[in-house]
Amino acid sequence: MPPNPVPMAVSPSRRPSSSPPSPPDPDPDLLRHLLQLSRDVSPSPPPSWHASLRVGHNFSSVPRNFKQLSLLFEELLQHTRGCDFAMPRSASLCFREMFLVFHRVKALFHDSSGRSRAFHLFRAERLAAELHEQVVDLATLLDILPLAELPVSEDVRDLVRLLLRQFRRSSTAVEPAALSLRRDVLELIAEIERGAVPDRDALQGIFLRLGLDDSRSCGREIDRLERDIGDCAADHRWAPVMVALAGILRYAKCVLFGASIPRSDSSAAAGGKQSSSALENITVPADFRCPISLDLMRDPVVVATGQTYDREPIVRWIGSGHATCPKSGQSLAHLELVPNRALKNLIARWCHDNNVPFDASDRNVTATVTSNNKKPADRDITTPAGTNKAALEAARMTASFLVGELAVAPSTEAANRVVHELRLLAKHGSDNRAFVAEAGAIPLLLPLLRSDDTGLQLNAVTALLNLSIMEANKRRIMHTDGAVDLFVHILAKGATWRAKENAAATVFSLTTVHSYRRRLGRHPRVVELLLQMARVGPANAKKDAMAAIMGLAGDRENTGRLVEAGVVRVALEVSGEPEAAEEAVAVLAAVAKKGGAEAVAEAEGAVARLVGVLRRGSDWARESAAAALVEVCRQSGAEVVAELVAVPGIEWVIWELMEAGTERARRKAAALARICRRWAAAVEAERTARYSEMSIPASSTTVS
């Protein structure tokens, strides 16, 4: 080997996709950075993890060896401070390459430390291979480093040679204990796939080897595993296994450690609305929530009216025989669903920034519906667990276990823990909702709406809201004796605004079935309490109350009751509040369409308020305002049209909506323009006729 060899560049194929920063130019700065990096590398998995999760020898030895290399950089830094030392060019190049390797190793360990235990277990070979490649690169650099030309002690030279021998012994082998644990986990998954309930002792033994010994550690593992599932969607080998294990973790957490203690909710009294899973302490942007399920959308699609929904809820809506847009009530011109990829990318980025699990897999299923039976022609949409038999069986066992525990809960505190778990289980996935309901949860949850315990009442009504998203569960709820009265009790005497909001949201969910919409509207207090909530409640309460009223307004029979109760006045008031304006204007449009146009026209300031929404509202609000104005103008006569035409700048507002509004908004704006033109033509014709009658023909004048 020549005395001053030039180090070979590390193969680009071995470098991670995220490029490390460029090495600093001055040698002292470079050495200081190397010293800091050698101390920063932390072991992964953490030392507290069970030995079965040590996927390879390198994961424990490399951090230790890096810290020993820090002695080399310390001695070199001392020489650069004390005398004029010019580092050989070959050594400088070696250290610059080491800087890149150190950064890649640090990034690898940092990423690995935030992963789930299952990620390490199932991707052990890949993790070991990635680290082995970096160790080989480092061994090459140490081999060609000109130690003889560096001002370091013989002890440091001996240490570097020792580390070089250790790095050369690096391999991609995975520890036998990790392979054994993985085999046992796969056998457990296979056992559950066959429908067998796992032995409790065997289950506990596997969990102890995974380092999961209490409810809190299980909860953290589930959250991390769900994030890892999204990252591993392209890994067809292990992604399904990780999905299955996530379901088994939920089951085992309840069976081995009991239902978890619900988090204290300091915002409940203030009316702050939060999710109850990974989103519990995060405010999800309203545009990212599905209008049907109220969940964060995972696969947003656009229907014919231009409204966006999560794919699974809208497919179920269409599959149940509906041919209208749930949000606007407008008939769907066609039943094709178009993926909203721009919104999906925004949601994915938001989830990444907020550390929220997001399944980014693209489910390319188009919902087409035959014109005869109104059933989806393609397969139903499912969550990842929906195609995983082990995950389904685990969810079924979890639901059955929790419902059994709720039936014999010895205290309010115990019941609250179980109901909280049911609430979380029903939060995501139609399969989970079906399992919970089939296990008999609904008749047990409904009486808890009268509980004096604030947390139990909130968890119960939220669990019922989550369950009501599924069509079959709507029937189970409404066919339970006294169900409507119990929701009315929450609307009237709910302990917190959040409980009232979720009760109103449940009413909205139930109104998607026509017969239930009419039945709810006939109850003597439902309309009254929803309007009261819209008048005096906080922003979220107003929004949920208006949504429920909009659902009721979809039935002509309910319109009279709503008008008599003062819905037009309340909706006009709420339309001025940004958080609930869309729902309030949609209520006005629905009331006008179903026979309440006269009431809207007679309300003071209604036309001016609707025109104001046309100017400054959101796309959906402008669409609803245009629809309301069209109905009012058509059914209430020329006086309303005259009031509309008298609004300054109305021509420009209508023209702008025709150019830049949604498809439905453009149609409604065109209809408004035609109404205004006809009114203007009629006024001009009347003026001409009146002028003609007042004129005296010249031929009839005689000269005396």
UniProtKB/TrEMBL annotation:
<dbReference type="InterPro" id="IPR058678">
    <property type="entry name" value="ARM_PUB"/>
</dbReference>
<dbReference type="Pfam" id="PF04564">
    <property type="entry name" value="U-box"/>
</dbReference>
<keyword id="KW-0833">Ubl conjugation pathway</keyword>
<dbReference type="InterPro" id="IPR003613">
    <property type="entry name" value="Ubox_domain"/>
</dbReference>
<feature type="repeat" description="ARM">
    <location>
        <begin position="440"/>
        <end position="482"/>
    </location>
</feature>
<dbReference type="InterPro" id="IPR013083">
    <property type="entry name" value="Znf_RING/FYVE/PHD"/>
</dbReference>
<comment type="pathway">
    <text>Protein modification; protein ubiquitination.</text>
</comment>
<dbReference type="GO" id="GO:0005737">
    <property type="term" value="C:cytoplasm"/>
</dbReference>
<dbReference type="Pfam" id="PF25598">
    <property type="entry name" value="ARM_PUB"/>
</dbReference>
<protein>
    <recommendedName>
        <fullName>RING-type E3 ubiquitin transferase</fullName>
        <ecNumber>2.3.2.27</ecNumber>
    </recommendedName>
</protein>
<dbReference type="GO" id="GO:0005634">
    <property type="term" value="C:nucleus"/>
</dbReference>
<dbReference type="InterPro" id="IPR045210">
    <property type="entry name" value="RING-Ubox_PUB"/>
</dbReference>
<feature type="domain" description="U-box">
    <location>
        <begin position="283"/>
        <end position="357"/>
    </location>
</feature>
<dbReference type="GO" id="GO:0061630">
    <property type="term" value="F:ubiquitin protein ligase activity"/>
</dbReference>
<feature type="region of interest" description="Disordered">
    <location>
        <begin position="1"/>
        <end position="31"/>
    </location>
</feature>
<dbReference type="GO" id="GO:0016567">
    <property type="term" value="P:protein ubiquitination"/>
</dbReference>
<dbReference type="InterPro" id="IPR016024">
    <property type="entry name" value="ARM-type_fold"/>
</dbReference>
<dbReference type="InterPro" id="IPR011989">
    <property type="entry name" value="ARM-like"/>
</dbReference>
<keyword id="KW-0808">Transferase</keyword>
<dbReference type="InterPro" id="IPR000225">
    <property type="entry name" value="Armadillo"/>
</dbReference>
